[in-house]
Amino acid sequence: ILIALYLLVSLTLFAADPPFGEVLYQKRCAACHDQPSPRIPPRAALENLYASRILRVMNSGAMMTIAYTLKRDEKEAVAAYLGKPGAEPGPPPAAFCKDRAVKVDSSTKLAWNGWSPTVTNARFQPAAVASLSIDQVKGLKLKWAFAYEGDISAYAQPAVIGGQVFVGSASGAVQALRADTGCLEWIYQAAAPVRTAISVAPLGKRHAVIFGDQTGAVYALEAESGELLWKKKVEEHEAALLTGAPTVFDGTVYVPVASWEETRSLNPEYPCCTFRGSVVALRIRDGFQIWKTYTITETPRELGKTPVGTPRWGPSGAGVWGAPTVDAARKLLYVATGDNYSPPATAGSDSVMALELATGRVAWSRQVTANDAFNSACVSGVNGPNCPEGSGPDFDFGSSVILAKTPSRRDLLLAGQKSGMVYALDPD
């Protein structure tokens, strides 16, 4: 009898509580979507969409900035509550090639593989490879176009190798296309949006297509078939995301790790902040983690309360947003870091770092802007409770370091900062 009463009470309480997604919708979304407006789709329209489409719009579409304050599981709950279950229809049969065989010639010079044709990240294509003069540019014409169904952004740079194109999308679909026609050869659906450039690496007689998603996961697909070879979560923090392209070199892929957490601070109830940027080295053959180096050495800890009583955490931030740069001669890897999200400010933020390729040990680090603790709560004139006191200028490094040579053949590292400044550093 006692067991039966316990179950009855438990089921009654459970039934009385609305689903998690409904609670979030009423709290965060209903004020707009339950009110008639020609600019805002009503709830009835949302209910006709697939949950995956709604989640995509919150992750990378028109609702991205509104949904910044929601954690990943909260977005998923809202999408599941509103939308239809199941997978969205894929491309029509006419979009696919008659012959879907993928042939990758990694020895060809006619390639743009990853963020840059070379691991120095100069992003320069020599004339001998480009085979295009300035006078020929005016004669270029559109040959074909490829649309991303349901996406409003196309922000993953393609890899082009001979007759093959590999590209990711905001929906998380990674595609292999024929370079001459744009027809599809295969599609792989990742678990989250893919913003990184695609990097292709030889793997025995096959090739691996390597990329990261916006949950902190790295994938390796077989280029010839699109089948998953391995998947590795390189950062477990809820707000982790990968934007910088993975850099492939000598059997290893170097992955830069950043995060959304800076935007979570817009919610005054969010305990900001606990993410630390990092670089992770994985073995291409099987995804085994060789090393992981954090850009902030200290572990985040609770450091008091905000004016509204929310716990403050720090240090945090210093994400790595751009593709790492390889210096084969010095056996070093260069990365540039973002700002801190919360105090205390650290020596690893707004810096250029040199890591040993083999071990990840920091060989040297040069900070160019100190005390730059900033987050999205620091809106001019109306700073939120999570904004650090005396917040910094938000001068991240967002792009990759470039390893270049002067006319006298001296090596320099060039790093462009959000401040508008470009710094030249001696790699030694």
Spatial strand arrangement across the major sheet: 1-2-3-4-5
How much of the sequence lies in strands comes to 25-35%
Distance between the termini: 78 Å
Spans where pLDDT lies below 50 across 5 or more residues? 2-16
- Described by the principal axes of the CA atoms, the overall outline is globular
The number of strands is: 23
Short description:
The chain is 15% helix and 26% strand.
Can you characterise this structure?
The structure is a single chain. It contains 8 helices and 23 strands. It is of the alpha+beta class and 428 residues long. The chain has a 5-stranded antiparallel sheet with strand order 1-2-3-4-5, with no helix packed on it. Helix 2 packs across helix 5 (72-82) and helix 4 packs antiparallel against helix 5 (72-82). The longest helix has 15 residues, at 2-16.
